[in-house]
Amino acid sequence: MSLSLYQRLAISLVLVFMLILGVFYWWSSELHTRTRLEAEQRLHLNLAAHLVHDNPLLADGVYDYQGLENLFHTLMLLGPSFEFYYLDPNGKILTYSAKPDKIRRAAVSLTPISQLLEHPDTVPVLGDDPRNPLGQKIFSAAPVNKDGNLQGYLYMIIGGEAYDSVFAKVWESTALQQLALWVATTLFFLLIVLLGLFRFFTRPLQKLTVTMQEFRANAQVLKPEQCTSQNHSEVHQLGCAFQEMAAQINAQFEKMRQLDEQRRILLADLSHDLRTPLANLQGYIETLALNEQSLSESERRRFVEVSLKNARNLKRLIDQIFELAYLEGGQITLSQEAFPLGELLYDVVAKFALSAGKKGVELHIFPEHCGCQVFADIAKLERVLTNLLENALRHTPSGGRINIRLVLRDGKVRVEVQDTGVGIGQNELAYIFDARYRASNSQEDRTLHTGLGLAISKKLMALLDSELKVQSELGKGTCFSFELKQASY
């Protein structure tokens, strides 16, 4: 059976508590018993010696054993907690006041007696109990001499059988039972309090475990708790850290799911775009192969030109697909250097001058003479400017203008590509940089374009540590802008 952490802690606490209670009870009992025995033995240490000195029977040597037995009987009546025995020099019991069947030893060991007589400060010293063959008790002893010769010993047990009997009855009394019950109740209540504290401290950990199990089963946190910095509990902080981690995992998982969905859509669109020029190319080549003899020279030339156009469009589409894939995979390396931005702008504008003139669109750079230098990758920047001008020219009708404006501010150069084209609706601006996205009012032309230019430009500017931004108003034109670091001279 699998036990929870709280159950294991509770069982361990109960066992440890019982062990500590047992050890404490044993230790306190031993300490109490030893202290009581030492105190009683010290109190009656010289009692046997006084009896030997003051009693004529013992002081002159013992010959009247019957009289000595009567003396012991009288002394035991006066002191019920004492037992008196007269021993010979070898420890044999000669005289006592008790029924013969109560005496279970014929002799006692003299070693404890000698130890007590020679070293009285070593109390408590236990001697043999004549009424218990295996028991030992504290005692008082004194030698009995006559004319300098040892006659025997007065051996006096302190706390005899009568004492033990009375003590047992007192222990069984109601008052002591109530005291023991009160102590046991107090200890039980303490145990319950400790178990409650364990429950209180382990409950957050149990909740965290449930949350982790739910996350493992559903890959999401169902009921996130409020995380506050004022709570210094390690378990609470651990739970907050786990919830933050789970939220990040969920966000990344959702982002990956969206990217995967976008890639599937992009793949489907690109497959369609690839199929169109490929089908045209195949059709014209098959026509040339089948009807080569019947076609005139001009028709063959036109078929070849159309095939080349479709091949170039196909190559351009494939190149942009690979470029976007490299950008997303982080496989593009930068070669940044300082160069004059004005020269690059005029070179790029020169590439579109002829097509802009045929369409009736004016191209202008402001200011006309710009000597500022920037620090960037010239090839990547040329690719971005080419995409932006191509996109602006495609959506600017005849008679329109495309202005490239440079603004110097705070050590940076702001580049703006502004056209007077059809513009983009505000509800579509958020999607303009998505791959294959085309605005609803985009201009149709005969030039095949993949719809990847703005997505590629956005990623290229991110590599150049800049952000490509867009502002547009429907029917009035669009302005793309980004900032570059100005190179120091």
UniProtKB/TrEMBL annotation:
It is found in: Membrane. Its main location: membrane. It comes from the Bacteria. Residues 269-488 form the Histidine kinase domain. SMART domains: HATPase_c, HisKA. It catalyses: ATP + protein L-histidine = ADP + protein N-phospho-L-histidine. Residues 199-254 form the HAMP domain. The chain crosses the membrane at residues 6-27, 179-201. GO terms for molecular function: kinase activity. Its EC number is 2.7.13.3. Pfam families: HATPase_c (PF02518), HisKA (PF00512). Keywords: Kinase, Membrane, Phosphoprotein, Transferase, Transmembrane, Transmembrane helix, Two-component regulatory system. This is histidine kinase. It comes from Bowmanella yangjiangensis.
